[in-house]
Write a sequence for this structure.
């Protein structure tokens, strides 16, 4: 047979048709169809996610571990669900005294912080320029040896006091280990970040003569007057306050409380309040005194408390025979509703009605601390609000403000200092805290950086633990300059935060879900509580407990420094320190004093008069003599925002969002996802502007604008919002990170860099509430 | 119309019709006379194509689609059942009702911290897994897709089904059979079933799987239809999607 064209065609067509029929009668098509659906549904997405390994959760036994969350000072109890040895979900711990089963968005996203790519994988030494992100991975021995070498050299040169330490808190054994280290090493410069809680502590010290933290009996209050506190935006211990808010908002009329929000912006708290009074930002203190005026004038105050347990209400003479003006006289003369109306922009009738409603409520409570309470604020403003609580007699009463004693760690042997330590520790603090100028303040973190940038050589080394001052300190550019003057920065951070990014050495701590630690009473809680962090999972990276790292450094430094740390390791120290509480802690995870009640009025006050002092005689005791009587009384002293009103016609205020972490812990991706398109669009941040203001500046919704303050300039998007007062711009805090990773870095603008530090005259802490600003069309 | 297209048309016509028309014959370079035996050529080609591809589909395709792996240890179920009792001895339910599945190394270590016999596979277990403390990477024949929620508790404890109903008489085997998986989906071959057509009996009627070492009983199929069929038979309803697909 000749294979001609025709035969070839016949053969091939015949074969093809036969092949097709054969395949059709085999399972190939049907089987592949089934496989392709599975492949496209399950395999393809996994390939796109970067491969087959690690994409699917392990299978294994489901267990639950109870611990405590430390992502904010709220100290919630958590229950972590584990499958095998992997943590898969964080839930609020049922029955925990703070949050009873509730959890906030940040706490729930904690696993992203544990397993996320921004963890520091092990001890790192800077390899390139500062902040260039070039690191060399070193062994723990090498890393610690390097820290020891630098610290020992400074000590040898007699510069022990130039070593500063910045902590996120001073409560619990780890911060106290750092304090102990600094004392044994010979430096007075132990700092920690300051918050509104510090200002309230100072106020309690001044007006009540106690060393206490403020506790609010929120659950039992039935008229909550909030001076800008973001009650559902993360103020206090967020879950606890939100739970209390649910009680106040209850459908049950008997339980239902009245919530009044004083704030220049319609925050979520304001939106959910019974009444919202926008007032000129920064005039909260004036309003508090205006309300006091009405309460006093109309005799609506608690007569028993004022008459028997207060000092300085009426005019009088002190022990030295010097006459003084009472709170009543000051308030009645200076803070009439009309005068306050002019200051705050709120009408007199509203002031009068609000004062009456507040004073007539059964359990009235005035709360203070703007937003999340992360900025310390003005002492006089805090005193004015606290005076309102005193007027209605809710101090240490159900539904009122409680002074909760601060408990120091007990049972540690005294630190014996050698001559170097003694000399260094005796040097004046760089921040001027505790000096004649600021005798009442313990730490002035912002001042440390000002000193470092003004005086090269003032800070030769900086140790940073559980804080991110490079990001959180206001006036970021000044902090960046300060870092340039600090030759050696050591970060103990678990995450590659901004401070770690600009450090020379990172000695990463275990993540909070990987370590043992004690967690003392959360912020704002009225009853003492001690929680225990326990390892939920084994350390995921080559990290080391900061307590152990510090003790290893101390031991390597030798001499009295080593002797100050007689414990074998941190876990041993913790067990020994918590001694009789340890068994309970290990078993239940916390020790509470459920039956705690604050002392009665007769025993509550440690002031010179033994009473609640409207007229603070403690000022004289610490040598802060005021020129005028008014200086001893709660009064309105405006905190002027920085900037010239002519150049910067608007006022910029930071706003706090529950869905945006703005502290030392970066916002996890889960939380960033929840930001609205009017908060963050791509990498651009929106600022809130009243339509009136926008019209004046020729701006419209979604338009780019340049936001300029005396401190910094940023490109932002404009969001028109009728809930913000005209002339005021709101900027969310918590974005504009440069550290961490692509999930966070480069998104938005850091509000802290636009703000500056305005010092409070009493505390020397940052009293800033805003700054003057200019908004121009791009 | 171009010349090529013209030719194509003609090709189709020729293929389908053995007897060409006059017009086509005119167009062909060498005309074929009607009635010659040459009409058989396309039929033979058809038959060859048909048989070859039938074989490809039924025999070669499964060989290409599936890959085999050996279990890390050749486990003797029969011996362990004799020593430890029923399936539940090792494949137990935890206190919370969840099913433990394949035992962890810790379970093995309870007896095999050191070799108790002289079998080379046991020596391998001790050497490669027990001593370094490494989990044994068992390959799981009956692993359902990720989208399937399956509760052993509901089937074994509540419906009182036998393990062998779905898994086959695994407990009677001396050796582990090779684990075969689909190269495309990465699923175990037991899910689709060893019959490539998928037209086998149901899972609860085991299939004799041919293996190099002889025949082993295994599940015939574990697809969704099998679940639904049993649910319909035992419960009267096929059940909703979300019963298994949460």
């Amino acid at each position: 047979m000749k294979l001609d064209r025709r035969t070839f065609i016949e053969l091939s067509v015949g074969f093809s048709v036969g092949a097709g029929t054969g395949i059709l009668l085999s399972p190939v098509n049907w089987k592949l169809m089934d496989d392709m659906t599975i492949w496209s549904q399950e395999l393809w997405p996994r390939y796109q996610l970067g491969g087959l390994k690690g994409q699917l959760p392990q299978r294994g036994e489901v267990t639950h571990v109870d611990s405590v969350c430390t992502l904010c000072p709220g100290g919630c109890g958590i229950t972590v669900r584990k499958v095998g040895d992997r943590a898969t979900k964080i839930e609020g711990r049922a029955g925990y005294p703070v949050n009873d089963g509730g959890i906030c968005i940040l706490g729930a996203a904690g696993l992203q912080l544990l397993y996320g790519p921004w963890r520091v994988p092990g001890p790192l030494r800077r390899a390139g320029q500062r902040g260039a992100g070039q690191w060399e991975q070193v062994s723990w021995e090498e890393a610690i040896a390097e820290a020891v070498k630098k610290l020992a050299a400074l000590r040898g040169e007699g510069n022990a006091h130039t070593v500063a330490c910045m902590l996120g808190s001073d409560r619990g054994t780890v911060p106290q280990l750092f304090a102990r280290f600094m004392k044994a090493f010979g430096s007075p410069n132990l700092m920690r970040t300051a918050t509104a809680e510090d200002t309230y502590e100072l106020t309690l010290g001044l007006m009540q003569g106690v060393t206490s933290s403020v506790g609010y009996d929120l659950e039992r209050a039935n008229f909550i007057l909030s001076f800008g506190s973001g009650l559902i935006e993360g103020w206090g211990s967020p879950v606890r306050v939100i739970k209390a808010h649910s009680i106040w908002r209850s459908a049950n009329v008997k339980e239902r409380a009245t919530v009044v929000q004083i704030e220049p912006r319609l925050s979520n708290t304001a939106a959910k309040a019974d009444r919202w009074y926008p007032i000129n930002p920064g005039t909260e203190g004036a309003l508090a005194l205006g309300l006091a005026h009405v309460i006093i004038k109309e005799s609506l105050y608690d007569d028993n408390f004022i008459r028997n347990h207060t000092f300085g209400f009426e005019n009088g003479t002190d022990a030295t025979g010097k006459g003084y003006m009472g709170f009543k006289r000051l308030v009645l003369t200076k803070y009439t509703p009309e005068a306050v109306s002019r200051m705050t922009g709120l009408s007199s009738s509203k002031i009068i009605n609000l004062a009456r409603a507040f004073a007539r409520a059964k359990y009235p409570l005035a709360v203070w601390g703007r937003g999340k309470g992360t900025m310390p604020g003005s002492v006089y403003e805090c005193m004015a609000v606290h005076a309102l609580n005193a007027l209605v007699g809710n101090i240490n009463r159900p539904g009122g403000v409680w002074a909760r004693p601060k408990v120091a760690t007990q049972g540690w042997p005294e630190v014996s200092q050698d001559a170097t330590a003694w000399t260094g520790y005796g040097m004046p603090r760089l921040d001027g805290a505790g000096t004649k100028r600021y005798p009442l303040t313990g730490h002035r973190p912002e001042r440390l950086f000002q000193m470092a940038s003004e005086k090269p050589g003032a800070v030769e080394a900086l140790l940073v633990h559980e804080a991110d001052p490079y990001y959180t300190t206001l006036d970021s550019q000044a902090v960046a300059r300060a870092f340039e003057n600090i030759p050696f920065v050591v970060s103990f951070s678990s995450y590659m935060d901004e401070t770690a990014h600009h450090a020379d050495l990172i000695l990463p701590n275990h993540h909070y879900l990987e370590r043992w630690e004690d967690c003392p009473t959360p912020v704002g809680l009225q009853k003492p509580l001690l929680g225990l962090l326990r390892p939920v999972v084994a350390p995921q990276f080559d990290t080391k407990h900061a307590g152990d790292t510090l003790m290893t450094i101390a031991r390597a430094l030798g001499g009295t420094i080593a002797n100050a740390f007689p414990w074998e390791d941190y876990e041993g120290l913790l067990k020994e320190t918590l001694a009789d509480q340890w068994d309970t802690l290990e078993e239940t995870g916390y020790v509470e004093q459920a039956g705690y009640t604050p002392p009665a009025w007769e025993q509550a006050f440690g002031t010179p008069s033994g009473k609640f002092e409207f007229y603070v005689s403690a000022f004289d005791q610490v040598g802060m003599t005021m020129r005028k009587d008014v200086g001893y009384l709660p009064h309105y002293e405006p905190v002027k925002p920085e900037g010239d009103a002519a150049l910067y016609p608007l006022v910029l205020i930071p706003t706090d969002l529950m869905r945006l972490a703005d502290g030392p812990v970066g916002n996890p991706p889960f939380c960033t996802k929840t930001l609205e398109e009017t908060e963050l669009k791509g990498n651009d941040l929106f600022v809130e502007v009243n339509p009136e203001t926008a019209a004046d500046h020729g701006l419209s919704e979604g338009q780019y604008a340049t936001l300029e303050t005396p401190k910094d300039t940023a490109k932002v998007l404009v969001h028109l919002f009728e809930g913000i007062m005209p002339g005021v711009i709101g900027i969310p805090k918590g974005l504009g990170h440069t550290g961490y990773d692509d999930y966070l870095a480069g998104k938005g603008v850091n509000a802290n860099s636009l703000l500056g530090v305005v010092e409070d005259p009493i505390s020397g802490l940052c009293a800033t509430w805003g700054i003057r600003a200019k908004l121009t069309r791009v | 119309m171009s010349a090529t297209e013209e030719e194509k048309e003609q090709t189709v016509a020729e293929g389908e019709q053995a007897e060409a028309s006059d017009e086509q014959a005119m167009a062909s370079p060498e005309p074929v006379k009607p009635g010659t035996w040459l009409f058989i050529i396309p039929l033979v080609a058809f038959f060859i194509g048909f048989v070859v591809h039938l074989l490809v589909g039924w025999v070669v395709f499964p060989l290409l689609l599936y890959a085999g792996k050996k279990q890390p240890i050749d486990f003797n179920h029969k011996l362990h059942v004799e020593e430890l009792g029923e399936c539940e001895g090792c494949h137990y339910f935890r206190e919370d009702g969840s099913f433990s599945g394949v035992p962890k190394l810790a379970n093995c270590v309870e007896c095999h911290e050191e070799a108790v016999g002289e079998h080379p596979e046991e020596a391998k277990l001790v050497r490669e897994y027990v001593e370094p403390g490494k989990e044994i990477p068992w390959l799981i024949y009956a692993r359902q897709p990720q989208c399937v929620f399956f509760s052993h508790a509901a089937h074994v404890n509540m419906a009182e089904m036998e393990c062998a109903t779905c898994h086959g008489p695994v407990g009677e085997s001396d050796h582990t059979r090779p684990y075969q998986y689909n190269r495309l989906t990465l699923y175990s071959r037991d899910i689709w079933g060893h019959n490539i057509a998928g037209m086998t009996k149901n899972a609860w009627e085991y299939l004799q799987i041919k293996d190099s070492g002889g025949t082993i009983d295994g599940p015939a199929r574990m697809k969704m239809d099998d679940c639904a069929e049993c649910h319909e038979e035992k419960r009267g309803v096929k059940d909703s999607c979300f019963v298994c697909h949460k």
